[in-house]
Specification:
This protein has a domain of 43 residues. The model has no long low-confidence stretch (mean pLDDT 84). It is an all-alpha fold and 66 residues long. The protein has three helices and no strands. Helix content is 52%, strand content 0%.
């Protein structure tokens, strides 16, 4: 079973995009570009989602990774 976590190695701000990239087996740069595009299209509403993920999704060091 895969676990969603914030990456500590592939992190620009808080590791959310790096963790999503590992979870979906995608390049984290592509995830970051998607976030920026959706941020611009959604008039900043994605920023609130990103902030929630920072506090809800655990860090990589706090998760048991098999």
């Amino acid at each position: 079973m895969r676990k969603l976590y914030r990456s500590s190695k592939d992190s620009m701000i808080a590791g959310v995009c790096g963790g999503l990239g590992k979870y979906f087996n995608m390049d984290s740069t592509l995830i970051r570009l998607l976030f920026v595009i959706l941020f611009i299209i959604g008039f900043g509403s994605l920023f609130l989602v990103y902030l929630v993920w920072i506090f809800v999704v655990p860090k990589e060091s706090d998760v048991d990774i098999l």
